[in-house]
Amino acid sequence: MRKASALTAGGAVRFIPAGSHQLRHIRVIGGFLDGVQLDLTDGLNCLIGARGTGKTTVLELVRYALDLVPDPQIDPETCRRVESVVQHNLGPSGRVELVYQTQNGLSYTISRGAGENPLVMTADGSATDMTLRGGTFPAAIYSQNQIERIADQALSQLSLLDNFESQPIAAIGSEIRSLTNQLATNANAILPLQEQIAALAEEIAGLPGVQEKLAALPPVVGENAEAIEQAQKSKSLRQREAQACDGLYQFLQDYDGQLEAVTGQMAAQTGQLLGQELLDGPNGATMDQIREALLAGGAEVEDLLRRARNCVGQMLAGLAETGSALQSLHAQQDLSYRELIEKDQTVRGQATERANLERLKNELLAKRRQREGLVGKLAALHKQRAELIETLSELRDRRYRIRHEVAQRINAALHPTIRVQIEQSGHLEQYRAMLEEILRGAKLKQGVVSQKIVEKLFPLELVALVRDRNLMGLKRRAGLSDDQARKVLDALADPETLFALEMAELPDKPRIELKDGASYKASSMLSTGQKCTVILPILLMDSHHPLLVDQPEDNLDNRFVCESVVESIRQVKGHRQLLFVTHNPNIPVLGDAQRVFVLESDGAQARKVAEGDVDECRDAIVNLLEGGEQAFKQRQERYAYA
Predict the structure, then answer these.
(1) Mean pLDDT for all residues in the chain
(2) Which residue from 269, 356, 387, 599 puts its CA 20 to 30 A from 311's CA?
């Protein structure tokens, strides 16, 4: 990797890895580590000190400041650990401050107090509106025992792989969250439409019977038969005209109600959220500018709403006036119709029955048209949903490809000792747990049935079978009995349940393996030491992100530390910034640490007592990591080394 060089204040050349992110400065204000400042260099930085001097706390505070605490569903233990560290070591008024230099050379200061959101500032101290969600400032941070947990947990291994491409993975994750929100909104629109359509369908079901009764009525006979038939058709048309006018009037009233509901909201919300306390505060002038801008814009919106309501009001008035005129016409036409049919008693009875049936038919036809309109809307929503699901699938495929490429890079670097495989959508636990909960109370062994289903059917395949009520397909695909399949179809039939299943995610499933003799063993099946042996080399691979590890030597023998860990450090430190908390002298000494920080504590307060390269911190390394000069010399004599 190409390096850029820069002169330090003393004139020495300092190499900066081009294209790498750098953690330049750590400072703690308040709490146990009050006043501790660490100016990190490129390459290997080591933090040493006796137990209880706050070394681990430094790493956890960095994790907290960068908002890189793991998902509590994936690693609840680390989440609890960070929360405890912040609570007990930072204090209610303390804060941690970092200077982070991005790979393109821009520097930012991140400041975060206990219980606060991170504050990001530019190099000149100006506040920004940046948030740290999505790995804005990436770093790989691993605390004690976390390495072992990674070896045991597939989702933690997935996070490990994602750290190598955290920004594109985070961007895809953000798109996926947006899509799932859109799918939830889509479902909330579909469900009431389906209910309306079903209710209308029940009412419309009587339409054929009404039409049959109309068709069965005997024809009008007599000298006025033709005129009476025409008059009856006109009366049916008048009923439809009246229904149309009533429907339009109701629509305009509803429309006006919607406009009325939003009228005045801008001013009301502005007044509620920008109270006098804020206007009188230290940033009152700025808050008042916001208030005035919103009120001015709100006044324009209110004027548009007022004019819109006036326009709708005029339409209502015009429709009422026209409707009144239409009613008069209908009344006159109805009078003429009555005069025509009253001349014949037989025709009069038939006309009354026909008029009632025509009125009922027209009402049902209006509801059928309403239903057809709703069916069109529903079809559009289903089309939108299918497109969203397709896009969601494409995003998950793209994320898998990135993870697969990371796995291939690891394999290329660590073959044949370590092997990484990744199965797309292979982690079934969340899907299985979801099914078990849905099938609870269905009077079957939900654990057994759920396991059979998740092993054979993806969520979308299961949804398709349930929607089609495909009993035989479900039996055959999932290996269920008739009774089991029928109960599953019934339990999953609820549309809301099916929508939830459509969005169910099956995380990709990594498998990290260590070569043991002629075969490979999964990391979860290894001893504690072997687990660290298989995970640590992956952490130490080249990356653009700073790597911070608490006691990487834990559970490792010194031979592995010297031959593997130190060798990896020496290879990667020219391209990647490292910060290790360690009690093993081989890491700073044989790794040739560019910067060593020495902490000590009186039990109430920790402080930095020394810093420098390995030679400048020789005495502290010997005393703290070697057991003192005398012990070091005695071992040298015992081993008979000159």
Answers:
(1) 88
(2) 269
SS (H, E, C) 139-205: CEEECCCHHHHHHHCHHHHHHHHHHCCHHHHHHHHHHHHHHHHHHHHHHHHHHHHHHHHHHHHHHHC
> Which residue shows structure tokens 């109701």?
250
CB 510 within 8 A of CB 422: yes
- Give exposure, 208-234, as e/b (b: 16+ Cβ within 10 Å): eebeeeeeeeeebeeeeeeebeebbee
Amino acid at the residue 321: E
**pLDDT tier for residue 81 given thresholds of 50, 70 and 90:** confident
Strands 95-101 and 107-113, by their bridges, are antiparallel
| Residues contacting residue 187 through CB under 8 Å, at least 6 positions apart | 385, 496, 499
CA 259, 260, 262, 263 torsion: positive or negative?
A: positive
pLDDT digits (tens, 9 = 90+) for 289-305: 999 999 999 999 999 99
Average pLDDT over residues 299-325: 92
Beta bridge partners of 520: 515
User: Quick one: which of 523, 269, 276 has its CA closest to 418?
Assistant: 523
Least Cα distance to 79 among 90, 89, 68 occurs for: 68
Q: Which of 186, 167, 168, 183 is nearest to 393 (CA)?
A: 183
Bridge partner list, 580: 46, 549
Phi, psi of 107 (to 5 degrees): -110, 140
Mean pLDDT throughout 483-499? 94
Q: In the structure encoding, which two tokens stand for residue 62, read together?
A: 């960095």
Distance (Å, rounded) from C-alpha 25 to C-alpha 263?
52
Sole residue written with tokens 């049959």: 212
Q: Does residue 388 register a pLDDT over 90?
A: yes
Q: Which two tokens stand for residue 447?
A: 């654990």
* Two structure tokens written together for 423: 């199965």
Q: Reduce the DSSP state of residue 426 to 3 states and report it.
A: coil
Nearest to 73 by CA among 427, 511, 423: 427
pLDDT confidence bin for 17, thresholds 50/70/90 = very low
The residue type found at 355 is A
Q: Who's near 179: CB < 8 A, 6+ residues apart?
A: 388, 391, 392, 395
Asked if residue 36 lies in contact with residue 605, where contact means CB atoms within 8 angstroms, the answer is no
Q: Which of 139, 134, 147 is nearest to 75 (CA)?
A: 147
323's tokens:
């409707």
Sign of the CA dihedral 466, 470, 475, 478? negative
- Outline where 263-283 has alpha helix (H): 265-273, 276-279
Element at 493 (helix H, strand E): none
Two tokens at 131?
A: 């948030």
Residue 566 has pLDDT above 70, yes or no: yes
Alpha-carbon distances of 510 from 159, 201, 408, 517, 542, rounded to whole Å: 10, 50, 12, 22, 20
Summarised one tens digit per residue, pLDDT across range 409-439 is 999 999 999 999 999 999 999 999 999 999 9
Strands across the sheet containing 22-29: 37-39, 22-29, 95-101, 107-113, 119-122
Encoding tokens for residue 554? 């834990």
- For residue 12, the model assigns a pLDDT of 34
Q: List helix spans (H) across 446-504.
A: 446-456, 459-467, 471-478, 482-491, 495-503
Characterize 290-324 residue by residue with b for buried, 16 or more Cβ atoms within 10 angstroms of its Cβ, and e for exposed: ebeebeeebeeebeebeeeeeebeeebeebeeebe
Residue type for position 398: R
Q: Which tokens go with 248?
A: 């339009």
What is the four-CA torsion angle of 363, 367, 372, 375, rounded to 10 degrees?
A: -170
